[in-house]
Amino acid sequence: MTLYELRQYTLHPGGFPVLADLFDRVFTDGLEACGMRVDGQFADLDDPDRFVWIRSFPDLDSRTDALTAFYVDSDTWRDNRAAANATMIDSDDVLLLQPAPGWGDLRDSRGSELITATVWLLPSPPTTPCAPAPQRSPTASRWACWRPTPGRTASRACRSARARTRSS
Questions:
Q1: Which residues pair with 147 in a beta bridge?
Q2: Do 10 and 88 touch, CB atoms closer than 8 A?
Q3: Would you say 126 and 101 are in contact if contact means Cβ atoms under 8 Å apart?
Q4: For the residues of 47-59, what is the DSSP string, one character each?
Q5: 3-state helix/strand/coil string of 136-154
Q6: Do 85 and 46 touch, CB atoms closer than 8 A?
Q7: What pLDDT does residue 75 have?
Q8: 92-146 per-position pLDDT tens digit
């Protein structure tokens, strides 16, 4: 089952356009060349100094290999990490997630104007769907229900995020 990382970075004022440009010019292609899929990068509607992005991996082993390929072995990261890190105050807000039973995934969300994701941090994997999936429209907001990957400690009972798409 596909694993997703929901990553939310707190940036220095004015850092968003710099980091978004790095993603557009070099990071997306570099990450995908190393085995990750960049599912989207977003602007937080409530915080102009927050950069939100989602990447995915086929499974946990693929994730380990892809992270090593990008962050240890790639020239893309080596050549651009100083510029990226200079935009950030904090990059530790990361959740490793899986779609809950009965819900799709984010594979069909590219090009959406608004993506709304609700994250439920559950103590154990659900065995039945969380709730009926809402009616989906090809142009409307996408909804997803998630659970953390085994071993992930929940720091909050619930997190809900609204973000506007930056990439198509």
A1: 98
A2: yes
A3: yes
A4: EEEEEEEEEEESS
A5: CCCCCCECCEEEECCCCCC
A6: no
A7: 97
A8: 888 888 766 655 555 555 555 555 566 666 666 666 655 544 554 443 333 344 4
Q: Tokens for 21?
A: 């440009």
Q: In total, how many domains does the chain have? A: 1
Tell me the average pLDDT of the chain.
74
Can you tell me which residue has the tokens 């086929």?
A: 58
Question: Which domain range does residue 10 map to?
Answer: 3-165
Please state, as a whole number, how many other Cβ atoms lie within 10 Å of the Cβ of residue 30. 21
Rounded Cα distance, 15 and 158, in Å: 28
CA 106 – CA 62 distance, rounded (Å): 18
Q: Which CATH number does the domain housing residue 84 bear?
A: 3.30.70.100
Dist. CA 46–CA 111, nearest whole Å: 21
162: β partners: 116
Unique residue bearing structure tokens 């709730």: 131
β strands within the chain, DSSP E: 3-11, 37-44, 47-57, 88-99, 114-120, 145-148, 158-165
| pLDDT tens digit sequence for 36-50 | 999 888 888 889 999
Phi then psi for residue 31, to 5 deg, are -65, -45
Rounded Cα distance between 93 and 156, Å, is: 12
